[in-house]
Amino acid sequence: FRAYCEKKGLKLTTNLEPCPSVYLDFEKFDKVLYNLLSNAMKFTPSGQEITVSLENEGDLCFLKVKDTG
After folding, report:
1. What does the pLDDT look like over 15-69, one tens digit per residue?
2. Which 3 state secondary structure label does DSSP give 67?
3. Nearest Cα to Cα of residue 63 among 39, 28, 29, 40
4. Can you point out the beta strands (E) in 1-69?
5. Could you tell me how far CA 28 lies from the centroid of its own chain?
6. What is the C-alpha separation between 57 and 55, in angstroms, rounded?
7. N or C, fewer C-beta in 10 Å, the chain?
């Protein structure tokens, strides 16, 4: 997605904290992450920013996609 963001003039920032191992369905996770990033790119105006963060809270991990669109 970084290359697509650069084409559109968007800044893509990642903030990834170390997290404990989690069990997930990679196909579903890939689809969810793809949809979140696609929507962020679609609705964020050129020159703005998209931030992807992974936060550790105890034995949980939180994935967040934040945009200014």
Report:
1. 999 998 888 899 999 999 999 999 999 999 999 999 999 999 988 899 999 998 7
2. strand
3. 29
4. 11-16, 49-57, 60-67
5. 15
6. 6
7. C
List b or e across 2-15, with b for residues whose CB sees 16 or more CB atoms inside 10 angstroms. eeebeebebebeee
- Can you give the pTM of this predicted structure? 0.84
Distance separating alpha carbons of residues 1 and 21, to the nearest angstrom: 24
Half-sphere exposure of 43 (CA within 13 A, CB side): 11
- At 5-29, the pLDDT tens digits run 999 999 999 999 999 888 889 999 9
The DSSP element (H or E) to which 30 belongs, if any, is: helix 26-43
